[in-house]
Every structure is written in C-alpha cells, then in structure tokens.
Design a protein that fits this description.
Elements lengths: L1 H8 L1 H18 L6 H6 L21 H12 L13 H4 L1 H11 L12 H9 L4 E7 L12 E9 L5 E9 L7 H11 L1 E9 H11 L4 E6 L3 H13 L5 E3 L6 H12 L13 H10 L3 E7 L2 H9 L4 H13 L10 H16 L5 H18 L19 E9 L2 E13 L11 E13 L4 E14 L10 E12 L5 E18 L2 E14 L3 E6 L2 E8 L3 E12 L2 E16 L2 E11 L3 E12 L1
Antiparallel strand pairs: 1-2, 1-5, 2-3, 3-4, 4-6, 5-7, 8-9, 8-20, 9-10, 10-11, 11-12, 12-13, 13-14, 14-15, 14-16, 15-17, 16-17, 17-18, 18-19, 19-20
Helix pairs in contact: 2-4, 6-10, 10-11, 13-15, 14-15, 15-16
Amino acid sequence: MIRRFFLLFFFPILLYSSQEKILNKANNLKLYEKNEWKALLHYNGSFNIKNKKFILSQSFSLKNELITTIKYFYTSQENYHNINNHPQCKFPSRLLFISHELNVSDSEFPKINCPNFNTYKMKAPADKISLIYASENVKNPSSMMGHTFLKYSGKNYQNREVEHAITFYTILDGTNLVTLAYQNIFSGMKGLFALLPYKKIVEQYTKKENRNVWAYQLKLSEYRKKLIYYHIWELKGIDMKYFFTSYNCSTVIYYALSLANPKIYDDNKLWITPLDIVKLLYKYNLIEKSELSPSNEWLIKMTAEGLDSYKINNIKSIVENKSYNKISKLDFNSLKLLEAYSSVQYKNNDINIDEFNNFRKSIYNSIKNDGTIFDISEYKSPNNIPNERQIDIGYNNINEEEFFKLSFLGASHLLNDNNREYFGESELKIAYLSILANKNDIELKEFTLYGMKSYIPYDTLTNDLSYQFELAVKKEYSKKMKYIDTVKIDGAIGIDFLLWHDINVFAMLNLGVGYNRDDKAHIFFNPQIGGMIYEIFNMKSLLYYQPLFVNDNKIYDKFVLEHTIFLFKDYKLYFNFEQVNTNDKYQNYEFGFSKLF
C-alpha cells in the first residue's frame, strides 16, 4: 500500500524534477549548437527532412527540437497504443547523444522497452560499420556519379556472421529530362531506404552493372559507432525527398560521418558527391582497412595490361574452345584474367552453368596452389581522383573579337582533365555554365544540362564500345557561318583504342537534332576522329577532326587542339585552338586557369 502510494504521488514529481535538471543542463551547455545535434536533424541552415514523424517541435529550431525531444523522452508509455512509437524507441541516437553529452546514466530517463528496435539490433548487428563506394556508371543517369552506402557486419542473435547494406536511393520514373530537372530543383523525388543482404548488392554492382565496389571499414569508438547505427534506425519510415544536387545518398552519409567526427559537419560543400565522401574518410583518418571488389570487365582490363597479345589470345581460346586442360600451364595473372573472362562469357550465356562452375573450381584450385597474392586495391583509387567541381577564368579570341571567359562546372569532370583513375577516358558535365564578356556585351557561350563521354579502350575480350550524349545550349557556327546560340540534343557511338599506356585514338559517329535562328530545326551529323595523349611534365593533349553536316549539306571541317598542364592535383592551365574551314578559315583560341574544388 505504501509503495503504491509512493508511485502514484511521488514518482511523477521525481520524473519532473529529473526532466527539469536535464533540460537546464542541456540549455546551459547549448547542446543544440553541437555539430552532432545538427547532423542528427540533417540540418544545414534549414531542415532537409520536414516530416512530422522526424521533427517533433511545432516551431522549428535546433533549440526547440532539443527541448521537445527531451520532454517527449519522459512521456509515459501508457500514452502509446504501440510502444514502438515512443520517442525513445524512434530516436535512440538522440537519446544516446543527450545522455553522453550530459554525462548522465540511462536511469535518468524512464525505462522503455522497444521491441522493434531490439529486433533491429538482433537481426542487423553492427559490430563493424563500413562505407561502401560503388564507382560511376556514366551510361545510367541515376548512377552517373557513383553511389555510397553503409554496410553492417556482425554476429546476429543466432550467432551467425551476417552483412547488410543500408542504402538511400531514388527510382527514376522516366527519361523525360525536363520532368527530372523540375523534380530535382522543386518537388524532389521519393527517397527510399533499404536494408538488404550485402552480398546481393555487391553482385548487382560488379556483375550486372560492371561497377567497382570499394569497402572502407570505419575506425570508430563504440560510442560513435552506436550513434551512426542508432541514427540509421531513426530514418526508418520517414518520408524523405531525394534531390540529385542537394539531398542525395552522399548527403545522408555526410550527416552520418559527422556523427563519427563532428569536424566533418563543417567541411560541407556546394554539392556533396560520392567521391567527396570517400575523400572525407582519408582526410579525417576514418579508415581502419579497405578492400576492392572489382567488376569482371575492369579486372580484365587491369590484368591484361601486363600480358602480351599471345597470352590474351590463348586465354580467349581456352574459354571459347573449352580447353580446360590447359589451365595448369598458365601463370597467376593469366589465371585471374581467365577467371574474369569466363564470368563475362557466362553472363553472355556462352557457357552453361555446370561447365562454368567446374571451370571456375579448376581456376580457383590453380590460383590457390600458386600461392600468389593479387593486390589490386591501390591500382586505381577514388581518393586520387581530382575534385569534381571546377571554375575557370580565361581569355577567348573568337572571330578576332576578344572576350573574358568565366566557366563553372557543378559536377563532375572534363575530357581534358586528369582522368587516369577512371575506368576509361571520360567526361561528365552536369550544369556546366560558360559566360563570355567584353566591354560591349555579356553572352552565353555554353550551358550543358547533362553531357557525357565514355571512351573505353576496345579489346578482344570485352568488345567495349564508346558513347557520347549531350543536352545543351552552345554557341556554334550556323550554315551562314554565324557564331550563334544553338539548342542541341545529340548522341554518338564509336570505338576507342589504347595504343600505349598514355595514348588513345578514337572514332565516333555522332547524330543529333538542333535549333538556331539560321538553320531552324535541323538534323546534324558530325562524326569525329581524334586522339589523346598524356605527355611528360604532367601534360595532356586532345586532338580531333570533326566535319559538320546539316540536313544534306556539308557546312565545315573543324580541327581542334586542347592542351592542359596539370600544375597540381586540383589546379591546371589550358590552351585550346580550333580552326574551322569552309570557303574561308576561322581561327579561334583561348587560354586560362582552372581551380578544382
């Protein structure tokens, strides 16, 4: 009787006293100004997540959200028909952060049992957390800049080692670029969170999409690891909008990494990309260890670089003729190449499943007996890629008229950049803007909403083709040889050959539709042949020839030279020259300086 009386009358008073103590301490220490608190709310000047399931306070502010959250932690579990909706169950990372920063024990808050959260911890353990980076696929707009997500590793409630991928993504409803642009800027797309078996995700990337996957195990204290692990749970079931530029897979990871090291929160960028995330790991020493799961096509090209044409043809013959008895005579690198090539052929349905499994078993046995370690983790590294935004200033001479040029690339890289760390020579322009100005006028030289070039060296094992696509407004010569604004959509297919480690030649067949005031709506055909070379003293040159046909008429022949000097990793000088031949010759040139950031 006395105990019941105490619980009815004194326990609420004690709870209220504890709540006031916690609120006063949190206010005095200004926890709402901590970077971890901002990261937990995905706050960057404004709230990226406005869903009422995530933001508890009526009047949005960092301080109000902290006060409201603490008060809600003290609400009685009897107020909830489903106990899993109690704030302690929905926001365990906020609870952990507040308790840790105030240096108070769990007993300061009412004890709430959270069945769903406990199931999450049992079935998706996170003894280790890794950051996963899947390389770019410029042929696919939704993955043109790569993808980042988290991996949990640990023993589940059945004492089995399990690995789960936790990824934030969106699904493109169509290919209408105008609609996609509107969704990206204004409405956003539906953001989806998924927790899936990690092995399934890696196989999707490496085997079906031909993308390399880097896994970086994070160096974390137990507290920091729990903050991230619990925070991912907090995002479950929240309505989140996905924006390619302002709130994407990498933005979510950026907030998670800010829980690992609060300094990362202050290292924000205009547009956080997957490569930015990888570089943050290196910058803040968050990598315990790393490993690479390469795509078969990438492994073929990397391994084939060290083999002569005789060995490559021999490998091709073994697979195509099913000469499995010759495996024992191959060296280690040839075996690895054979393994990758056989996987590609199986994917193309050129080998049946039983033959494939027996074949791979023989290869694995030969590799195991060789005992050689095949380390490719540093062959190409995302951390070595220059930054993905750039601004350049320069001088332009066009038709003997002088201009000052200012250009900005929102993301990602140009063909005349240092692209050695990519799978092949490539270009990816997203929101590229170039302005010309002199004392008489300010003009648009180019605005490319989306442009890509992918020059993948051809070989007899993978038979890769090269591609181009562009949606842009550019100043170009019309059939009257006037340098005017032209709206264009075009695409190309072709072939690229790697003559030597630093020399490529290519040929592209390019077709498109355009509009300008002279040619009106028109079809154009402008094939291209050229080459690229990385030269001594850290230089690169691009040279190509390109005729232009509008409808049935040949308009001109164009010869272009682009020369770049890489001063440092993120600084370059450039000089470009073009000559356009028709009845007359038109010579234009430019030079300038670029800063990548």
